[in-house]
Amino acid sequence: MDCREPSIEEVAYHEAGHAVAHFVNRVRFVEIRIVLANEELGRVVVAAPPKWYRPDIDSSESSPNYLRSRFFMERLVIGSMAGHIAQHRYAQRPPELETYRYDLEASFADVCRWVGSDHAAEAYLKFLWEMARDLVDMDVYWAAIKAVAAALLERKTIKYRDASKLIREAMVR
């Protein structure tokens, strides 16, 4: 299999998938970008997590914030995985591993904080993957992903305020 760079359209759908999943799951982001100057092809800049989110401390079941923090981690991971799934759906072929390796590694690291073994982490990731796939496959969210991708292709950078407006408008059509 030849490694190939994804098209700019694929990158736009990838980043739009992240952004819509984050929006739906109430994970705030600052902006969405495609065509970056460095090695990255695109990025959703996620806002700083809430002050109460401290996975280094809250991954213990005895922590008072355990469930709240674990749920937030799940929403982050679903948003991370949704980019790959949206790109795949748009392109009708799986993206090259290198285009989403960072997303997978970050998701695995996040999940590993909360479970006891690699085997459990893999099972948990599969569950979150299916949650992300369900989100991307819902017509209402796919319409929002398409709207954000189209805007990204036109503007290259979209701030949260504009993205949230685009997503809301696409979801009510």
Residue-averaged pLDDT, rounded? Answer: 89
Termini separation comes to 40 Å
Helix content: 55-70%
Give the overall shape: globular
Sheet with most strands: 3 strands, antiparallel
Radius of gyration: 16 Å
Our estimate of the beta-strand percent is: 5-15%
**Unreliable runs:** none
The tally of helices reads 7
Q: What is the N-to-C succession of helices and strands?
A: HEEHHHHHEH
Computed structural class: mainly alpha
In total, how many beta strands? 3
In the sheet with the most strands, the strands line up as: 2-1-3
In short:
With 173 residues, the chain is mainly alpha-helical.
Q: Can you walk through the features of this model?
A:
It is a single chain. By secondary structure, the protein is mainly alpha-helical. It has seven helices and three strands. The protein has helices spanning 8-24, 55-58, 66-91, 101-112, 118-137, 139-155, 160-172, and strands at 29-34, 42-46, 157-159. The protein has a three-stranded antiparallel β-sheet with strand order 2-1-3. A hairpin with a 7-residue loop joins strand 1 (29-34) and strand 2 (42-46). Helix 3 (66-91) runs antiparallel to helix 4 (101-112), helix 4 crosses helix 5 and helix 6 packs across helix 7 (160-172). The longest helix is centred in the middle third of the chain and has 26 residues, at 66-91. It starts with 7 loop residues before the first helix and ends with a helix. The mean pLDDT is 89.
